């Protein structure tokens, strides 16, 4: 349970809600334990920081300070967001008039109230450190973010010093945690605190040792990886070998069967060979017969030519015969003439002398 809630519930029971005296006590208590309040969440602007009169309606009903990040209940009572959210964790009513409310009914402040609130003038929270800035509530946050009197942490890593912004540069110049590069060129960044102890050789030796051990680690890792890869490859090879062995066994098994088949096929092959020899013999015989046929056909062609020749001769002889018969008839009619009797016989002789070719097969 947050500290502020203990404080409120201790003084502000449901029975005494709205009692100004009690509220005053709360504020007193808060002032006494400011650190405790601040560490929880910001709640309300301290009314003492404001210049001039502040309307009662712009005060938070819970912390009685000027509203910070305000919300309004339907009963028109206004509260800092942090105050009312904290209140509603353990209550379900308005702390002023006890009307039933919850977080869902809370609304932003009326615009005119918001404007009034924003116009209020107040001192910077760093007034106690010397800042004399007075500005409107609307712009106080922006000022305080950049206020030269704000306490900020040193920007050097490891330094816990909190310092006013305006003094930061001065502090950084002497901060024990400021760093600079080694002037001897070893490449190290030296913190001011260990300036005198810096030994370039020792630093580099340490670095070297680190690098060496890192290298050894990496080499070991690479070695392990290679070994595991080799191992898996070896396993793979063994598997392959056994698969190949199985295949060889399978190939060996069908040999007897193949041999049996071969024995069956061999006689058939011999028969086939014999048949092919027969076919070859038949073919050579056929070719001989064909050549005989060809020569017979040539002889027949010869005979036909001779026949045609004989036919021609026959026609010539017939003509000759007809000529002779005519001559005979003329000689019989006109009387015998010796010279005329001799001419047909001479023609016959010449016909007999013509060469005749006879082909004998
Ligand atoms: Zn408040
Ligand atoms: Zn109310
Ligand atoms: Zn300031
Ligand atoms: Zn520092
Ligand atoms: Zn060095």
Separate helix tally? 10
Rg (CA only): 71 Å
Order of helices and strands: HHHEEEHHEEHEEHEEHHH
CATH superfamily of the largest domain: Zinc/RING finger domain, C3HC4 (zinc finger)
Distance between the termini: 148 Å
Number of domains: 3
Keywords: Coiled coil, Metal-binding, Zinc, Zinc-finger
Zinc finger (TRAF-type): 143-186
Protein name: RING-type domain-containing protein
Coiled coil: 293-327
Describe the structure.
The protein is mainly α and 361 residues long. A three-stranded antiparallel beta sheet has the order 1-4-5. The chain folds into three domains: 145 residues, Herpes Virus-1, CATH 3.30.40; 33 residues, no CATH class; 99 residues. The radius of gyration is 71 Å and the shape is elongated. Helix 9 runs antiparallel to helix 10. Strand 2 and strand 3 form a beta hairpin. The chain binds zinc ion (ZN) (5 copies). The site of one zinc ion has 6 residues, from loops.
